[in-house]
Amino acid sequence: MSLMAESRADGARPPAAVEEPLAAVATAAVKERVPRRAGKAGKVSYRIRMRRDRTLILMTLPVIALLLLFNYVPLLGNVVAFQDYDPYVSSNGVTAIFHSPWVGVEQFSRMVDDPLFWSAAKNTIVLFVLQLVLFFPIPIALALLINSVIRPRVRAVAQAIMYLPHFFSWVLVVTVFQQVFGGAGIIAQTLENHGWSGFDLMTNADLFKYLVTAQAVWKDAGWGIIVFLAALAAVSTDLYEAAAMDGAGRRRRMWHVTLPALRPVIALLLVLRVGDALSVGFEQFLLQRDAVGVGASEVLDTYVWNMGIQNGDFSYAAAVGLVKGVIGVCLVVGANKFAHLLGEQGVYQK
After folding, report:
1. CB-side neighbour CA atoms (13 Å) of 16
2. How remote is the C-alpha of 32 from its chain's centroid?
3. Neighbours of 28 (CB within 10 A)
4. Are residues 324 and 300 in contact, defined by beta-carbon separation less than 8 angstroms?
5. 30-85 tens-digit pLDDT
6. What is d(CA 107, CA 320) in angstroms, rounded to the nearest whole number?
7. For residues 69 and 38, what is the distance between their CA atoms, to the nearest angstrom?
8. Which residues have a Cβ under 8 Å from the Cβ of 139 and sit 6 or more positions away?
9. Widest distance between CA atoms in the chain
10. Euclidean distance between CA atoms 234 and 93, whole angstroms
11. d(C-alpha 178, C-alpha 166), whole Å
């Protein structure tokens, strides 16, 4: 202690023989004061987080149980894609899996050689590209249009009118289009009263892809509007005021302020849409299948239903569905990587 006092009085550092034990004592004192469960770099331990969030975890348990029961447990049934599955070899469809013979990749080879499969895949890809080009930008444009309306009441009424068809079933949507664009619809009757005849858009196989795209726009564009309006509501008005003070007009404010604010949401929805590329619809096409024929309305979803449910070829339908799911996962991962290259988060971070 006298050595330390002399060193402090002289303003000099203590010798190394004294400095090292002092550092060890100081480190031990700090360790005693800091709880062990605090973790590294101030992170909260797993036990504390579980105790803190136990109420939220209990609330999510029923949802997790339903998700596992109806979304993940059925994935085990994909094993029939490698079998010649026969549900009648046993009294139970589940136990019939264990009694059905294994055929390896025979169902997948059959799928590659089936021209009907490639026709359905072609229709699916064409419809996806068409809906991506014509349908995806429409909610963005409508959201920008509604957001530019100054009066809140007019904005609320317009948003409600556009969002209402989202609650309609596909049966009602097809019925409405039939009453308007069908052979006995309003347009056909009006043209017939003026000397024209032969208008029936609902049975025109060449225009069917544009018809189903228009139906999807009318039904689901309102849902996308809500998503983009929520993103626009988070944009600070100070940015618009600063841009206006710098001399930016309405178009330049939309280009430099509004659209950059929508980029993360656009990237997220685009990734999800690309991942759902092979699922362009089922009920919508099934309802109009007889009107335009199988060649124009057959997509992968209706093809799986036709082969599996109608024809009873469960193994082949499972093989097609398994390939469709694997391709969908690859598309999600690839689109998300592309979003990362553009500097966006996408579905998940790097």
Report:
1. 0
2. 49
3. 9
4. yes
5. 444 444 444 455 678 888 888 888 899 999 999 999 999 998 998 888 999 999 99
6. 9
7. 37
8. 221, 222, 223, 224, 225, 227, 228
9. 118
10. 52
11. 18
Q: What is the pLDDT of residues 309-345, one digit of tens each?
A: 888 889 999 999 999 999 988 988 888 888 888 788 7
Buried b (16+ CB within 10 A) or exposed e, 185-211: bebbeeeeeeeeeebbbbeeeeebbeb
Query: What's the 3-state SS for the chain?
Result: CHHHHHHHHHCCCCCHHHHHHHHHHHHHHHHHHCCHHHCHHHCCCHHHHHHHCHHHHHHHHHHHHHHHHHHHHHHHHHHHHHECCCCCCCCCCCCHHHHCCECCCHHHHHHHCCHHHHHHHHHHHHHHHHHHHHCCHHHHHHHHHHHCCCCHHHHHHHHHHHHHHHHCCHHHHHHHHHHHHCCCCHHHHHHHHCCCCCCCHHHCCCCHHHHHHHHHHHHHHHHHHHHHHHHHHCCCHHHHHHHHHCCCCHHHHHHHHHHHHHHHHHHHHHHHHHHCCCCCCCHHHHHCHHHHCHHHHCCHHHHHHHHHHHCCCHHHHHHHHHHHHHHHHHHHHHHHHHHHHCCCCCCCCC
Most confident range, picked from 63-67, 246-250, 291-295: 63-67
Whole-number Å distance between alpha carbons of 18 and 145 = 75
- Say how far apart CA 272 and CA 245 lie, in whole Å: 38
Q: Which residue in this structure is represented by tokens 């124009």?
A: 296
